[in-house]
Amino acid sequence: GVFGEVYFAEGEYIHELKGLNEITPWRRKWQTGINGCTYPTHSLGPILQWLGTQRVVSVSCVGTGHHYRDPRGAEYENEDSILMLCRLSGGGLAKIRVDMLSERPHAMTNYALQGTQGAYESARAETEKDRVWVKGVSKEKDRWDLLEAFEDRYLPDFWKHPPKEALNAGHGGGDYFQVVDFVNACLGLAPNPIDIHRAMDMSVPGLISQQSIRQGGAWLEVPDSRTWQNDKG
Predict the structure, then answer these.
(1) What domain count does the chain have?
(2) Per-residue confidence at 231, pLDDT binned at 50, 70, 90?
(3) pLDDT digit string, tens, across residues 29-46
(4) 180 by DSSP, 3-state: which?
(5) What is the domain extent for residue 172?
(6) Quick one: 176 and 210 in the same domain?
(7) Which residue among 83, 101, 147, 184 is buried most deeply as judged by most CB within 10 Å?
(8) Alpha-carbon radius of gyration of the chain
(9) Do 145 and 216 fall into the same domain?
(10) CATH code: domain of residue 23
């Protein structure tokens, strides 16, 4: 690919949602009521899509401790800021940070990629822009190019010219395209872009992270659902 062999990636979901815990109680149980990387898919999903067929083979998870309590005075079981390191099947490394408690502005789409031929870093604030550097393409070795300069060459047409329905949909139009993909798969018009095994690749590492953090950040193997056998008994 453009970045050569990608050997490092990072994604961050930083979204203070203590108030949402009270409006949507399931969050208080399943996101902040369990320790570990309880929402890995938001960041890990895009990274795995960028890396083709690679999957996470082992994880190590640690946290920053507990500094907040809910309105009833109970300490959140989830540590404030969680880091999950992921060893990839291609030998590379991914770093996932999930923080749903710290007092700070949201930053839910922080990403980075590093390859043998280039690098990408997403904007981390409203005053910044996404940036890339590609060997042999970027004019200066120590100066980033804006990602938008590559849109004409690499951005899919459906993102360049989204329908009106997408412009009115949530999550920057992403909700619309998800529904279209789902309906097309149900109608047999196109394969599901994320099959059951890829969904497991994006989810199971977070479950194993809960075991890792209980063991002080021990590196633990992530099982591959493709090797599981049907239980017909």
Answers:
(1) 2
(2) low
(3) 999 999 999 999 999 999
(4) helix
(5) 156-193
(6) no
(7) 101
(8) 19
(9) yes
(10) 3.30.360.10
